[in-house]
Design goal:
With about 450 residues, the protein is mainly β. The protein has 7 helices and 37 strands. Helix content is about 10%, strand content about 35%.
Amino acid sequence: MFNKRVIALAMSIAVMSTASAPLNVMAEEVDSSTEVFVSTEEAVNDSHISKEEFQDGDFKYELEGNNAVINKYTGSATTLQIPGQLGGHTVTKINDWAFWDADTLTNITVPETVTTFGQYAFNNCDSLVEINYPENLSIIGKAAFASCTALKTAVIPKNVATVPESCFSGCSSLTGVTFKSDTGLKVIKDNAFNGCTAIVSLNIPDSVQVIERYAFSGCEILKSVKLPANLTKISEATFFYDSNLKKVFIPAGVTSIEQLAFSTSGNDEKFDIYYAGSEEQWKAVTIGDPNKRLNVAKMHYNSTLDDFGVSPDAGNVTRGDVTFTYANEIVFPGKKYSLSNFGEMFVAYGGTNYAVKGIKVDKKNKRIQITKLDGKNKKLQKSVKKLTKGKDGLEFKVTPFAVSDNSVVSAKVNKKNELKRVAVEINGKKYKCKKDEYAYDPTAKVITFKGSNLTGAYTIK
C-alpha cells in the first residue's frame, strides 16, 4: 500500500502541473508557491495504514469503533451506489485516496450516513459527472475533488465549516456552487476553486468570514461575485486571472484588499464595484499593489444587493446534462416578476454557458419556465423549455420586501384618520398594497406591514 500511495503522489503532481493554466501564470507573476497535492510525508503518515483491513465486494474497509471506513474502491463500474453498510457496519467515512483515479466512474451515490470525505478521496476521477453530497457531511478533506474535470455540481452541505485547500481545483466543467441556505460555512481555503473555468457567477453566503489566497483564481468566465457580509479581507490573488469578471459586490466591513486580488493579464477592461459602504469608507480601505482592475473600476457607493442584481441565495440545479444557474431566493419584486429578479441566469450544456433571455413565472406555485436562450442552439432551447415546464419548473422562494421610513410610500388618509390606500415603491414601480398586507395605528400614524410580501413599518409624515 505504501508504494502504491507514493506512485499515486507522483502521478497527482504530474497531473496538476498541466491541469490549470492559471497556476503557471500565477507562478510567473507573483512570488508565491501554491501546493495542490499531498506531500510525501503526508502520504506516508496515513493513520489507517496500520489498521486491520477487510474486504466486502469491491470495497476495502477498516473499522473505527463499530463503523466502517472505506479505504479503497477496487471495482470498475460506471454508476456506483456506495452501500450503507459493509460487513454489517454502518459506513460513515470515505478515507483518504479511497476513490483516487477511479476513472470509469461517472455517477456516485453516497449514503446519507457518511459524515467525512477524506483528503484526495475522489481526486482525479476525471469521468465523474455527478455525486451527491450527504446532508450529514461535515468534513471534506484537502483536494477531495481536485482534477475531476467532468464534475458539474458542487454542493456545500450546511454542516461543513471549511471548504479545504484545493478542494475543487481544476474542476473545469463545474458550472456553479450551491451553498445551503442555513449553512455554517466559515472558511474557504487556498485554491479551493482554482481553475474552475466554467463557473459564471458566485453568491457566497454571509456566514463565510475568511476567503484565502487564490481561492477563485483562474475562473476564466466568472462574471459576477457577491462577497459575504462578514468578510473583512480580500486575500492575495483571490480572483487573479478572472479576466471576464464584470461586477463584484463588496461589503462595508472589508478593510483590506491584498495584492493581485483583482489583477489579471491581457484584459484590464473596466468593471463595476458595488460597495456597501460610503465613498469615505472606501478611501480608508488598504489596497495592495498591484490591483490593476481596481484602478479602472466604476464605483457604486452605498450599494444594496438589489442594486447589484443578485438575491441573497443563488445556486444551481442539474437535470441530466443541463445545469441551471439562477437566484433561487428573491426579495418580493412587486406585482410583476421579470428576468432581472433572478440575477444572471445561465444554462450550461456541453461545456458552454448560454445566457437566459426569456422566462415565464408561475407566481402561485413559484416555478420558472425558461422560454428563450441566447445564441443559435434552438434544439437546446426547445429542450430546456420542455425541461422547465409546469410542475417541472425551476423552484424559487420569495422573502418579504422590507419597508422602512426611508422607503417611498404613498398613503391616503381620510378626514376620519382612516387609512384608505397604501402603495410602496419597489424597484422603481408602485405596488398597491392589499388591505390584509398592513395594519394602521392612527394615533402614532404608523403603518405596519405584514404577510408574505411586505415587512417592516412606515411612519406617515
